[in-house]
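Why does residue order matter? Because the sequence determines the fold. Keep that principle in mind as you read this record.
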Amino acid sequence: MGGNHGHGAAVPGSRRAVMASVAVLVPLAVITLACLVWLWPSGGAAGDPAGGGPGAGAPAQVVRVTGTITYVQLGRCQKTAEGAPKPDPATCGKATVKVADGPDAGREVTLRLPSGPGAQRFSAGDDVVLVPSGGGGEAYQISDHDRGSSLWLFGAALALAVIAFGRWRGLSALAGLAVTFALLLTFVIPGIVEGRPPMLVAIVGASAIMLTVLYLTHGFSLATSTAVLGTLASLALTGLLAYAAIGLARLNGVTDDTALTVGMSLSIDTQGLLLASIIIGALGVLDDVTVTQSVTVAELAAANPSYGFARLYRAAARVGRAHIASVINTIILAYAGASLPLLLLFSIGEQPLGEVLTTPVIAQEIVRSVVGTLGLIAAVPITTALAALVASRRDPGTAHPGEEHGHPHGPGHGHAGQPDSGLPSTRSLRRARS
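Structure:
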């Protein structure tokens, strides 16, 4: 058999397909790089002279210090108004905290335990986050548990598991993840904070992530280039659908206190922010679908060199339909899980289903789900067609597997085009006896 079977998807593509991919992807990369340089944040906030925005500026940053609780003394809870929720007795009292950093590092302070509705429980030995107190004679107040150490532990466990299973491919996937976070934290979020158009920042950021991460994770190949082109086309369609859906549903992106605060304090276009969030969220699932379809077509072409465009497309589309069926359920469950507390609140209020679905916060999640799902559905035929077109257009003279060993008809055929059983022929046995 030929060497192609040893590498699975290493099917020779036509030179014309390679040149066409380069002709599209190189200008795309150049435009993305130019837009990154043009939109790169200068370090100011919206409303600041450096940021160039017209707002009142970002809120003042709260100084946080860490500490460790050395002793907890529970006490009686304060009386609450009639009808108000009663605090948990385990949250009433005082705690002695040893400050770990800041101007009071090494000093022990006695602070009241948070005892409001939903307050967390604290005990001796807990690492906590402290913020400056607004009064009451205390320098600090306990804000939250310090989860830094546990999160680093979870991250290390994830990295070890990915590398142990994926080896070099897992290491490249972690590198791609690092690039994604770097671009989000250094370009997308600061750019939006400075007052840049959120949708434009999201499109440029998503393109940079796509071009960098896909090639870094899957290598420079025709299959990866096909996945990039399929992702780009599907992402553009998702953006157009999101723009139309948000306008049709008349959503402005303000559904909670956080969005309202962001819109008022930073003078950010909240509708554009909603569009940006849909685009960034869609990219995370689109590249999974497009890479799967591109690699599936390449593997089918390697295993069945006689397959043309139609047979490759039909076979890979069946895989894509099964993949989409599971991914759609994943998307809906993810949004439902994120909105579960809100859904419970609506259930307790016994509001009619029609009223619940038309509230801004639920309508926004419905638009996210529908637009993301439509983008995913479109990604399958687009990427599959591109990959099948590339895989079925080999250069004249390209050897099929089996031709390298003197079998012009490929594996499974004899010299006269008859099926080859793989057993020695009668003529060869006579030669062996003589």
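Strands lie at 65-74, 93-99, 108-112, 127-132, 140-145.
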